[in-house]
Automatic annotation (TrEMBL):
Family, per entry: Belongs to the bacterial solute-binding protein 1 family.
Pfam families in the record: SBP_bac_8 (PF13416)
First and last residue of the signal peptide: none
Name this polypeptide is given: Extracellular solute-binding protein
SUPFAM superfamilies per record: Periplasmic binding protein-like II
Taxonomic superkingdom: Bacteria
GO cellular component terms, semicolon-separated: ATP-binding cassette (ABC) transporter complex, substrate-binding subunit-containing
Coiled-coil features, chain-numbered ranges: none
Lineage: Bacteria, Bacillati, Chloroflexota, Caldilineae, Caldilineales
Xref: InterPro entries: SBP (IPR006059)
């Protein structure tokens, strides 16, 4: 009987333990389900925040297209930065638009300006210094054209360019041939320019110009040609060594001025009021010789692709070779520097558009020379039949420090008009212009 009793006892004990075991297992299951429910599902990485910056330049088609290309490349490398490109403003309205927007804290974060405007823009507090850690002075000294030194003010860098440009001598080969001149031998000296311009000039019986040999146009590039080239070639200097005194009305400057004037007053080789100025006249194939910048290559390619022309270095005189160098440059506005994220994006953009790669794209699309020395010293560039003359000029180019480029240019335009329209003596007109510009310099330097 004992075995039976034992068996019944064991079975009863098992039956008593089974509900407890099930209860424990149930509790464990509930606990595990709770733990699973408490574990947060893995979330995908948040999309990076897009920083939008605004870039402005005036409407000049070759530069607009080149910048569009650079912006496309930049945004591909920096998908978190969106660049709004505003290039709808015509040149005559550009500075007014800047003046209306930047002080109000709207408009561009980065703006392109002519280097000769920089002093005026700084006085108006449009620009902030470029961050020194991103654009150290040693980098500019070692890797950029010496012309870019004009972007420093009292040792502080305010702007930086993609490209620089020089002046050179454009000539229409077809018009030279029609005049019996060798289209492969453009004028190499000022004397040759005067004689060949006269030979190219064709007038109808009523006196109207059919072909203009050379058009003096101080509203275009000829004010630079006079100041930094002709004055030096006749033995003078345009300014004192410290840049604070006008000297382009010296005896040498007067000789240079008279040389310039004689194309209108004596040789009668052209009229700036025809064809909307000398530049448009050259593009239309109505002017034989023309002084212009490397940027003109882009507009010729776009607007006068069939023009049969060549480019040479500017004519020399007294053994002196000279040219004027300048550039359009980029600066950061107060708005662009107002937010750390925006400023970081702006700096990245400026570093990209002033790189060697950007300079190479710029020269191919616009015709302006890379501001960086490495890209600008490309042997193919120096050997190029159109760009080579501009590249060669970088070795001896002179850049004017402008307090107010527009007003300083206008003084010479007014002096020219005094002579050709009002009959003023050439030396008196030049002295008046010099006095006007000296007043501008004195106001700036506080004399």
């Amino acid at each position: 009987m004992r075995p039976v009793l034992v068996s019944v006892s064991i079975q009863g004990e098992m039956e008593m333990k089974t509900p407890r075991l099930l209860w424990i297992l149930g509790c464990l299951t509930i606990a595990l389900l709770g733990l699973v429910a408490c574990v947060a599902p893995e979330m995908p990485d948040a999309a990076p925040e897009i920083v939008e910056i605004e870039y402005w330049q005036y409407n000049f088609e070759p530069r607009v297209l080149a910048m569009d290309r650079l912006i496309e490349m930049f945004e591909a490398e920096n998908p978190n930065i969106k660049v709004v490109h505003n290039a709808d403003v015509p040149y005559p309205e550009y500075r007014d638009k800047i003046a209306a927007s930047v002080p109000a804290g709207v408009g561009p974060d980065v703006a392109t300006l002519f280097y000769g405007w920089q002093t005026v823009w700084l006085d108006a507090e449009y620009l902030v210094p470029l961050p020194e850690d991103a654009f150290p002075a040693a980098l500019i000294d070692d890797e950029f054209s010496p012309l870019v030194q004009a972007s420093f003010v009292d040792g502080t860098l305010y702007t930086i360019p993609t490209a620089v440009r020089t002046l050179a001598f454009f000539y229409n080969k077809d018009l030279m041939a029609e005049a019996g001149l060798d289209p492969e031998s453009p004028p190499a000296t000022l004397d040759e320019l005067a004689s060949q311009a006269a030979a190219c000039t064709v007038r109808a019986d009523n006196g109207d110009y059919e072909v203009q040999g050379f058009v003096v146009d101080l509203a275009a590039q000829d004010h630079h040609w006079f100041r930094e080239v002709l004055v030096r070639q006749f033995g003078g200097e345009p300014f004192s060594a410290d840049g604070q005194s006008v000297t382009w009305n010296s005896e040498a400057g007067q000789q240079a001025w008279d040389y310039l004037l004689k194309f209108k007053t004596e040789l009668e080789t052209g009229d700036r009021d025809l064809f909307d100025g000398s530049t448009q006249a050259f593009l239309a194939g109505r002017v034989c010789f023309h002084v212009d910048g490397s940027f003109r290559l882009g507009s010729i390619a776009a607007n006068a692709p069939d023009l049969n022309f060549g480019v040479a270095e500017l004519p020399s005189h007294n053994g002196v070779q000279s040219t004027f160098g300048s550039y359009w440059t980029h600066g950061i506005t107060q708005k662009g520097a107002s937010d750390p994220a925006r400023l970081e994006a702006v700096v990245k953009f400026l570093q990209f558009v002033t790189s060697d790669e950007a300079g190479t794209i710029w020269v191919n699309m616009v015709g302006e020379l890379p501001a960086r020395l490495q890209a600008g010293s490309d042997p193919e560039l120096l050997a190029d039949p159109k760009l080579g003359a501009f590249a060669a000029g970088l070795a001896y180019a002179q850049a004017t420090f402008f307090v107010n480029e527009s007003d300083q240019r206008q003084a010479l335009i007014d002096a020219y008009d005094m002579v050709v329209l009002a009959g003023e003596e050439s030396n008196a007109a030049l002295d008046i212009a010099a006095e006007t510009v000296q007043g501008i310099l004195d106001d700036h330097y506080g004399q």
